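Weekly puzzle thread! Below is a chain. First person to post its structure in token form gets bragging rights.
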Amino acid sequence: MHFRAKRLHILLLRSFAGPFAMTFLIVIFIMVMQFLFKYINDLIGKGLEFPVVSEFLLYLTATMVPMALPLAILMAALMTFGNLGEFYELTAMKSSGVSLVRIMLPLIIVAVFLSIGAFLFSNYMLPVTNLKMRSLLYDIQRKRPSFQIVEGIFYNGIEGYSMKIDTKNPDTNILYGIRIYDHTDRKGNTMVTVADSGYMQVSADDQYLIFTLYSGRSYNELESDRKNKKDFTYPHRRDLFQEQTILIELTGFGLDRTDESLFKNNYSMMSLNMLGHYEDSFRTEIKKIYRNVNDALSERTYYNYKRINRSTTKNEPDEENDFVMFRLNLDSLFKELEVRYKIQTIDQALVQARASMNHISTSSTNTEAKVSRLRRYQIEIQRKFTLSFACLIFFFIGAPLGAIIRKGGLGMPAVISVLFFLAWYVLSMSGEQFARDSGLSPVLGMWLSSAILLPIGIWLTYKSMTDSSLMDMETYHLFFRRIRRRIRYIRIKFGIRT
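Winning reply:
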């Protein structure tokens, strides 16, 4: 019996491993392509080297793992149990006395380990890959496109220079009608170089653009030392040359790597310990703002203190307990004032009220900003748990649903998986948005999708254990056939004609 159970477990693990690996790679590929299409304008035409592209794709793939893993588990579980049901292997196992829970047990253990692995990956690996991917993407976005001059159009891609060529010979790469405007002094078109023809090439280290010009002229408007402010004339210099070489420094065309520490404070690049630290810090700052507002408003209220000696056994009063606070009767005091003092008092009260309102408004703005950032950190803390828990939920949805529908392959399982994943994603994004807007607490907002889908998984598991005909189309055909028979009987009995 033990040998049979062991072979059964090996069969299930092999049946699950293939679809899981295939669907996981497909989902990762689709998500990576979706990301690349989103940032296609920032990536194309930059002349990126293969090692840089490979590094970026590696980090990008790693960032997609937590999102792709639940969908891969859902599709793999659906395909595995759908194939077993379609070829009556699941029926044979049940007829031999093995319950569905016993059949699912090895894959349940695998799903638990995958869920734990997803949490560990989200907590330790994902912050690192997010940091490296986002910093590299930032560097790629800052990198300028590859140097290219179009005929008849001014090119302003090099800082401080504007250049234009009339035509270019594609066979010899000779440029004709070259104009180069030097604006590095930021004084307008004071330095201009015009040449009939020439060559253009980039240095081996991609640091300089080298122009070799033939039969040209250089114009330079020199600024003189004007002692007389009425003298606005500039000396003009013109140089003729048969051959001249111009060296222009290319700034911004290389990939400059930014210090990754600049991005470390982002919530998506932190582990649970770091997120908890920032959460406590923001809570402390928010409480401090509330306390400062309360203290500032308390100082502006009209209270008076009178010292009395409550001590009967001591000669010296107790400084902490020998004060009695009482409120002044402002109406009676105000009526006793002269008119000019009443006006002065009202003016002072208005000034004080405006100052209090400004203080409250400024504190409210600061508090809202800090609460918004606090919600981000709290949401990210819950996300590390919800993504891993989604692996278990999707397994308990996919496995029993596959046993019910009894269809394998990539057809119906793929459609059902995508529908459930979209429902989970929409619920997750909606709950996250409610949490960001403080409509729900971060715990309720981030666990909203799990709270809705978990009962569905439990219900499907129960239906599959009781051999429910939930997805059997013949059952629905019989149901509607009985309804039609009943309607026909009623028409005949009461003589109703259609």
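Puzzle host: Confirmed. Bonus trivia for everyone else. Strands lie at 161-164, 167-168, 175-182, 191-202, 208-221, 236-249, 303-307, 323-327.
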